Amino acid sequence: MASRSLLFSSITTLFVIFIISISSSMAETDSSVPKSESVPLEAAVHIVYTDRPQHEELEIYHLRTLSSVFASEEAAKGALLYTYKHAACGFSAKLTPEQVEEISKQPGVLQVVPSRTVQLHDKPVNVHHF
């Protein structure tokens, strides 16, 4: 009987500790300051989906599109990470929120989405939205 009482007491104590830890972690994430104000805005990887050019090489077209939001072609080359050629037409690049807004307005740009990596069975998988 004493061992049952001790087991019940231990389980109750663990449950209370669990509830307190969840409550404190929820309190830490619930901030009155909006996230955009508390985190500095930096360049992040985005996927830029574009029309497929008719009379221009794909890489040149993507670099020209990207250069429209950078100070130079060299800066655009430094931001360009990958060119998508087969299933989709577009490229990935490191862009600031202002550059995302600007490039979204360029002719031939269909969609700009943040690149996300999710865990699936302990292997990272890139998620791209079409």
Please, could you describe this protein's structure?
The protein is α+β, with helices and mostly antiparallel strands. It is built from five helices and six strands, in the order ααβααββαβββ. The chain has a four-stranded antiparallel beta sheet. Strands 5-6 form a two-stranded antiparallel ribbon. About 21% of the residues have low confidence.
Q: Which short descriptors sum up this protein?
A:
6 strands; two-stranded antiparallel sheet; globular; 4-stranded antiparallel sheet; 130 residues; alpha+beta
Topology record:
Layout: H1 2-29, H2 35-38, E1 44-50, H3 58-67, H4 73-79, E2 80-84, E3 90-95, H5 97-104, E4 109-114, E5 116-120, E6 123-127
Antiparallel strand pairs: 1-3, 1-4, 2-3, 5-6
Quick structural overview:
With 130 residues, the chain is α+β, with helices and mostly antiparallel strands. Helix content is 44%, strand content 26%.
